[in-house]
Amino acid sequence: MANQQSMCTSFLGELLSSTHNFSSANPAHTANTADTFKAALYVTTATLNASTTAYSATNEVSGTGYSAGGVTVTNANNPTSTNSSTTAGVGYWTPSASIVYSTVTLTTAFDTMLLYNSSQSNKAVAVYTFGSQTITAGNFTLTMPSNTTTTALVRLSTT
Amino acid sequence: MLITTTKGEMDDSLLEHKSGSVDNDVEYTTWDEYYLNGELVHRSAHVTLKKTPFTDLIGATLG
Question: Hey, are the CB atoms on A136 and B40 less than 8 Å from each other?
Fold first, then answer.
């Protein structure tokens, strides 16, 4: 089975135990220090999906200029929450900069990025898929969506 | 303009340039390819994600 875009189910359970901390303002772990999140790329034959629980090097891309584990995600945005009605709302978060893999050569086709928490045993957050790509002596850039209730990279809602 | 290639940095005037894009519900992606005598020597891609995983959380109803 191919990679499938999904929020990792383990992440949902881990939210209830304050495992992940995206914020530097109201932290659960270390005072005023958010966890470090990373983004790793996976080849098209990988099988990442909602059941992915942590980063693994299996089927991760490899090539010139790419380090196993991927790159650190720039996080200057604290999570935000907004009421959408008197009984529902959305919590959301988006990295504050594009995710860039600079001057890499990745000849095996890839189509997936795993967002994971490198501060907490590499626990998985979500799987993002896109059209198959290869890179030759170039940059691969993932531009982040706008950090809003309807487009943020990580969104949790009640309805 | 200098382009980083598998042969080192080269002036783009020496290279054949191809580019393309995909725009659908999931992503907007652009790419640039440069060829030297038919050989791919540079390829970059830029993906903007549109549709991201969205999770609904449902609280139990009391009573």
Answer: yes
**A71 within a domain of the structure (yes/no):** yes
Q: How many domains does chain A have?
A: 1
Q: What is the ipTM of this complex?
A: 0.89
Task: Please give the Cα distance from A126 to A7 (Å, whole number).
Answer: 4
The reply to whether A101 touches chain B by the CB within 8 Å rule is: no
Lowest-confidence segment of A17-21, A86-90, A145-149 by average pLDDT? A17-21
Identity at A109, one-letter amino acid code: A
Assess B30–A contact: CB distance below 8 Å, yes or no: no
Domain that residue A73 falls in: 6-81+93-145
Q: Residue A37: pLDDT band by 50, 70, 90 thresholds?
A: very high
Contacting residues of B for A126, CB less than 8 Å apart: 52-53
State chain A's mean pLDDT as an integer: 91
Residue B43 predicted with pLDDT over 90: yes
Whether A53 maps to a domain, the answer reads yes
- What Rg, from alpha-carbon coordinates, does chain A have? 16
Confidence of residue B45 (pLDDT cuts 50, 70, 90): very high
pTM for this prediction: 0.92
Query: Which residue type sits at A92?
Result: Y
Say yes or no for a CB contact (<8 Å) between B22 and A131.
Answer: yes
